[in-house]
Amino acid sequence: MSAFAYFLMAAVAILGVCLLLSRRAGRRDFDREAYGTGQETFLLFGRDSVDSELSARIFDPEDLDFVAIETSRRNARQFRQERTALALDWLRAVRGQVNQSIRAHVRDARENAGLKPSDEIRLGFEFLLFQLSSGILYLVIWVCGPPRAAKLLGYSLKLAAQLRNVTEDVLPAGRYVGVELMDNKQEPRS
Amino acid sequence: MASMVIWLMAIVLEVVPLVRAAEAKFTKHYKLFYSYLAFILLRDLWLLVVYFRWPKFYTYAYWSSEPIGVLVGCGLVWEVYKIALARFPGAARMARNVLAFLFILASTRIFVKAWNRPTWIPGRTGYEIERDLRIVQVALLAGLVVLFACYAIPLGRNLKGIIYGYSLFLVTSVVNLTLRYDLGDSFQRSWEHTQPFCYLFVLLVWCVTLWSYAPIPEPTTEPRLEANYESLVAATKRKLHSARSYVLKAMRP
Q1: Torsion sign, CA atoms B6, B7, B10, B15
Q2: Mutate which: B157, B236, B245, vs A, most A CBs within 10 A
Q3: B154: which DSSP letter?
Q4: CB burial class (10 A; 0-12, 13-18, 19+) of residue B179?
């Protein structure tokens, strides 16, 4: 059993090393091509309200409903497919810009002597979380289409908020009990 | 006969990069690597003498020289770290922390194992000890490689060759030693062939990648003027948060 475990570990290590190094080798001028100058990052976010409106429009069911009512089923299906492709492209663009921003951060951080490993790990974790959630979102959009994905997201966010409220209701009581227990412990001593 | 041919080939392949580097005068750039190569060359020559003159002592001579090889190998990992991150103090700081963590983790595993098993005595369980020490090296080198990839550290052909070759050597050693330890004498015959073949391949990688000196490429862009690390992290976090809220806003009109 342990032999297999070591075999697996070794295979993973070899693959990892080869993949990482070959990936890096493929990126010949990594700094220039992938990082850019750092100025062009986040063109999409916070640009103006027009952009926000347009991106919101992708997920709005209004257009889809209109097409479904006014045209044939075939056209409606085609429209839905195109909207899905557009939504996926949009999400890819957002992810791409986040990646670019992280790369710009990494480029600056690697030469900064004041780097704090804990901050780097925290940031890396946040980035991973973003990648994971946007990856799930990508899958949901691909499977359900943009309007349904938006509905699902709204529902899950509502659920998360409700859960948070419930936890907040319970947690102060928990803290209070904790404080009481500590006080009880300390009383006999004094 | 076959193992003798492999042995002699290994010695030749150890001599080639050493002579080549001495000729082209670039040994000074990778001092510890060439020290390691010189050490294994001398060790192989010494073992060859022992094998023919005092065959009874060969096993003892082999296993007693292995820990020194592992130690010199640690120097090689250290050199990779020093050279690759010389121009990147931030990434070097991160590497120090990650490597210290990995070293403590891997060493603790060995000590706990030794503590729990009274039979784990150096000298008697040579395969297992060497494998455990090699695992520590694998962990350290893997940690370094992941950091190089994350921080996009330019390496250059020579350094890449050293990393490729040594990683391959470490991983094949761990696999072979594990199989030798777990399967016992039944694997001994295969081990006598697989290990030298893997080692020959590693030496070939080193011969090719270290044929001439290839300096580490300079980063093509200048870092931004944001010297304060806190403000850099804050700016990146702000961008991440704005990306998240942008997505949420778009999907929740």
Answers
A1: negative
A2: B236
A3: -
A4: buried
pLDDT of chain B, 253 residues: tens digit per residue: 777 888 888 899 999 999 999 998 888 999 999 999 999 999 999 998 998 898 888 888 888 888 888 888 889 999 999 999 998 999 999 999 998 898 888 888 777 877 777 665 554 566 777 788 888 888 889 999 999 999 989 988 999 999 999 999 998 888 888 877 777 777 777 777 778 888 899 999 999 999 999 888 887 666 565 568 888 889 899 888 888 888 887 777 5
Residues 6+ apart with CB under 8 A from B119: B125
DSSP classification of residue B219:
P
Q: Rounded CA gap, A7 and B171, in Å?
A: 9
Cα B141 from Cα A48, distance rounded (Å): 47
Phi, psi of B215 (to 5 degrees): -65, 155
Judged by CB atoms closer than 8 Å, whether chains meet at B247 and A16 is answered as no
pTM of the model: 0.74
Shortest distance between the Cα of B145 and any Cα of chain A, in A, equals: 7
- At B2, list the tokens: 């076959």
**What residue of A is the nearest CA neighbor of B131?**
A6
Q: Is A132 exposed, middle or buried (0-12, 13-18, 19+ CB in 10 A)?
A: exposed
DSSP string, A90-140: HHHHHHHHHHHHHHHHHHHHTT-TT--HHHHHHHHHHHHHHHHHHHHHHHH
Q: Which of residues 17-36 of B touch A (CB under 8 A)?
A: none
Residues 6+ apart with CB under 8 A from B33: B76, B79, B162
Q: Which residues of A touch B143 (CB under 8 A)?
A: none
Q: Mapping DSSP to helix (H, G, I), strand (E, B) and coil, where does residue B147 land? A: helix
